[in-house]
Amino acid sequence: xxxxxxxxxxxxxxxxxxxVKEEEKTKYLEEKAPPIQTSGMSLDELQELHAKITVVxxxxxxxxxxxxxxxxxxxxxxxxxxxxxxxxxxxxxxxxRVSADAILRSLLGSKHKVSLDxxxxxxxxxxxxxxxxxxxxxxxxxxxxxxxxxxxGRKKMFDAANQ
Length: 163
Known about the structure:
The chain has 163 residues and is mostly helical. Helices cover 74% and strands 0% of the residues. It is built from 5 helices and no strands.
């Protein structure tokens, strides 16, 4: 019930829109192209006017023919596309691991000459500095153990806690 009422309302609105467009078209044509008075024209002027009208009609016919040809071609291509969609199965896609360089090469082709080095922007850390810190910590730890062993070490710990 509701659906049929909506459809009826929509058709009424479409008809009204078509009527309004037709009225606008006639008003525009009356303003831009007033009717031609042929009563005062000579035979030569009428023949020139007739020649112009035939040229315009030929152009209009050619354009209409092109439009109908193109619409037929579009329909045929749409039918072919729908037929091809139904015949082929889409394969399951597999994940492929590709490096950033390979992606850029495939996108840019031969233009890609710069390699994308992700490690170039990282800070460099010298191994010598880290090794020195480790040996110093190990040395300090052993000295502390020897110094803290026995009664003297416990006394030092007790004094350090009271301060």
